[in-house]
């Protein structure tokens, strides 16, 4: 279990930043043939929080994300977003509602520039018709100019990628590609941002940069974050709430330090055995 420390990036204590649940997962079950990927998974995400989903490899985390974002249709249960059941809402329509996502495996258009990749994130919100788009006049032109201004003056500046704005994505390092994918998600004007292993494969410096960006997205942009991540140092440092799943089931949830010390969480990551010994090994790994 990876445990990178993220120095000086502790999330500021907040009195449960908001009252309402922006996302509610109720009794979600998903099967592929005889394989039960999710079994009655339930948890809530508070508006204005960073909520992390953790668990060993194969626990069902990506299946959960795919069900929340609409790529999978669960066999049972409900996904409620902004107080509305979205079980039958297609992924593009969920994006238009304010649900944006990054992927475990980078899903950028490698032959396009950084700027063009980011601008694609706004596609769900564009309302111009085909004729206006083809002729590039009226609303189409104004929309494009406004989008470019926001991307260039806010998103690119925020993520400190102005120096690569016109570079081909294929020429960038892995860490910068992950940053561009985050920029594209922010261009979607999300209310909730689903991050699937945002620091996987990154070195310490890249991880600390991404942690800072995630906290700033929450604090400065007011965007709720739901994150799947294996790096326990990052999870424990920036999360307001942690949900741990194993074998497709929620085994515990709560404040980061409480989840970290839970015997079932330690056992899920480090195997069965004496809990006190396993806890010492867990802490030594940090």
Structural overview:
With 286 residues, the protein is α/β, with parallel strands linked by helices. Helix content is 38%, strand content 22%. The chain has eleven helices and ten strands. The protein has a six-stranded mixed β-sheet with strand order 6-7-8-3-9-10, sandwiched between helices. It has a four-stranded antiparallel β-sheet with strand order 2-1-4-5, with helices on one face. Strand 7, helix 7 and strand 8 form a beta-alpha-beta unit. Helix 10 crosses helix 11. The N and C termini lie close together (10 Å).
Beta-strand percentage range: 15-25%
Total of DSSP H or I helical runs spanning 4+ residues: 11
Which series of helices and strands comes N to C?
EEEHEEHEHHHHEHEHEEHHH
Give me the Rg, rounded: 20 Å
In terms of per-residue confidence, which ranges show pLDDT below 50 for 5 or more consecutive residues?
12-18, 129-134
Number of strands: 10
Secondary structure: elements and pairs:
Elements: E1 21-32, E2 35-46, E3 50-54, H1 61-69, E4 76-81, E5 84-85, H2 91-97, E6 99-101, H3 114-119, H4 130-135, H5 139-158, H6 174-186, E7 192-196, H7 204-219, E8 224-228, H8 232-238, E9 241-246, E10 249-254, H9 256-260, H10 263-270, H11 275-285
Parallel strand pairs: 3-8, 3-9, 6-7, 7-8
Antiparallel strand pairs: 1-2, 1-4, 4-5, 9-10
Helix pairs in contact: 10-11
């Amino acid at each position: 279990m990876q445990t990178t420390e993220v120095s000086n990036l502790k999330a500021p204590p907040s009195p449960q930043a908001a009252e309402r649940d922006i996302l509610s997962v109720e009794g979600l079950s998903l099967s592929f043939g005889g394989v039960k990927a999710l079994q009655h998974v339930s948890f809530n995400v508070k508006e204005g929080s960073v909520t992390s989903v953790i668990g060993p490899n194969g626990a069902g985390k990506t299946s959960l994300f795919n069900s929340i974002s609409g790529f999978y249709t669960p066999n049972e249960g409900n996904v409620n977003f902004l107080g509305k059941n979205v079980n039958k809402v297609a992924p593009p329509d969920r994006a238009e509602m304010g649900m944006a996502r990054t992927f475990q495996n980078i899903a950028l258009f490698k032959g396009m520039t950084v700027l063009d990749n980011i601008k694609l994130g706004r596609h769900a919100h564009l309302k111009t018709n085909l004729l206006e788009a083809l002729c590039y006049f009226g609303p189409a032109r104004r929309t494009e100019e406004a989008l470019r201004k926001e991307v260039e003056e806010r998103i690119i500046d925020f993520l400190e990628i102005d120096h690569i704005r016109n570079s081909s994505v294929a020429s960038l390092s892995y860490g910068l590609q992950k940053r561009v994918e985050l920029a594209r998600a922010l261009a979607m004007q999300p209310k909730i941002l689903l991050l699937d292993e945002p620091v996987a494969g990154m070195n310490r410096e890249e991880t600390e940069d991404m942690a800072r960006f995630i906290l700033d997205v929450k604090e400065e942009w007011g965007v709720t974050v739901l994150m799947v991540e294996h790096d326990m140092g990052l999870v424990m440092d920036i999360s307001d709430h942690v949900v741990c799943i194993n074998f497709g089931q929620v085994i515990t949830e709560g404040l980061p330090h409480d989840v970290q010390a839970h015997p079932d969480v330690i056992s899920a990551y480090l195997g069965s055995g004496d809990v006190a010994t396993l806890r010492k090994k867990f802490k030594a790994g940090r």
